[in-house]
Amino acid sequence: MSALDFDSTSKTITAGRFELHYHEAGHESIAEPEAQVPVLFLHGSGPGVTAWSNFAGNFPVFAKQFHTILLDMPGFGKSSDLEWEKAYPMIAAEAIDAFCEAKGIAQVDIVGNSMGGNVACETALAYPHRVRKMALMGPGGLAAPLFTPEPSEGSRRLFEFLGDPSDEKMSAWVDTMVGNKKVVSDELIRQRTEAATAPGAVERMYAIFGSILKPENAYTPLYARASQIRQETLLIWGRDDRMLPYEQAHFAFRQLPKAELHAFSRCGHWAMIEQKDKFERLVIDFFTH
User: Fold this and answer.
1) % of residues, the chain, pLDDT over 90
2) How many beta carbons lie within 10 A of that of residue 199, not counting itself?
3) Residue 27: what pLDDT?
4) How far apart are CA 286 and CA 167, in angstroms?
5) Which of 75, 115, 217, 288 has the highest count of CB atoms within 10 angstroms of its CB?
6) Owning domain of residue 77
């Protein structure tokens, strides 16, 4: 397999009303067992985030064993914007279904981080035939904040950045995302700030978050519907998560009928980066057994 760099794996597709960008590898060299389905990675919602920024490090490992796809969800990365006439996670779930239809993919296993976990669950609810299993890292929307104040520290730092973007405010936000600060470099902060301050990036974030909060969109919280999710789900949480605090893991675990829960110490919101090797072994085992 050739090196999986950004350009060599970058693709775009028209899927229904969506123009979607993604990275793909593994499908040409793998004789897939009948029971194995492609693995679709869904990123979170932070400023400047893309599928590549979340999962580039995990991509080669999964592509050795699976048909692996990293998708920029609508309004992120190189995927196109829309008018968000419904709450964003529901529109993104529609995009997942349209993407699978356009690619001729019957069913996927989904790895979702933060809002990507929320979108994975909405896809499992609205298009249950598309989703076999889910591995969700600090998934958004699956828990009511019973034991921690709202908004979380991470959410406050996020909106402080959006209100007045700077390297300092990006650094303060990223600090709330990690338990292991060694994974954060000056280069990461610079890249994230640059992407998050590109023309229209801040406005995109406000529009996406706003679509969930608009009363006219009548978005029923995901945690109120979680008991309807029938897919096997692996919940992964960092004990030091300050974006979606660890206490929420137990609420989500109780609601999902077919769930397992794994917690990492020395880990915040980015388990796929902070506990990379253990995360990869855990998820690959879950998808293959």
Assistant:
1) 88
2) 6
3) 67
4) 38
5) 115
6) 6-288
Of 25, 281, 235, the residue nearest 133 (C-alpha): 235
Checking if the pLDDT of 35 tops 80, the result is no
- Token look-up 């400047």 returns 48
* pTM for the structure as a whole: 0.96
DSSP 3-state assignment of 149? coil
Cα–Cα distance, 84 to 74 (Å, whole number): 10
Residue 40: which H helix or E strand, with range?
strand 39-42
Q: What φ, ψ does residue 150 adopt, rounded to 5°?
A: -115, 140
Residue 261 lies in a domain: yes
Q: How many residues does the chain have?
A: 289
Per-residue pLDDT of 46-85, as tens digits, reads 878 999 999 999 999 999 999 999 999 999 999 999 999 9
Number of domains in the chain: 1
- Token code pair at residue 27: 């499908």
First to last CA, the chain: 25
**In a domain? residue 1:** no
pLDDT band at 1 (very low <50, low <70, confident <90, very high): very low
| Helices 167-177 and 186-196: angle between axes, nearest 10 degrees | 110
If you search the block for the tokens 């999962």, which residue do you land on?
Answer: 55
In a domain, 276, yes or no: yes
- Three-state secondary structure call for residue 196: helix
Catalytic residues: 269
**Mean pLDDT for all residues in the chain:** 94
Tell me which residue of 181, 171, 204, 167 sits closest to 74, measured CA to CA. Answer: 204
- Which two three-digit tokens encode residue 10? 């970058």
CATH number for the domain harbouring residue 40: 3.40.50.1820
What residues form DSSP beta bridges with 262?
A: 236
Alpha carbons 46 and 141: distance in angstroms, whole number: 15
Structure token pair of residue 166: 């700077």
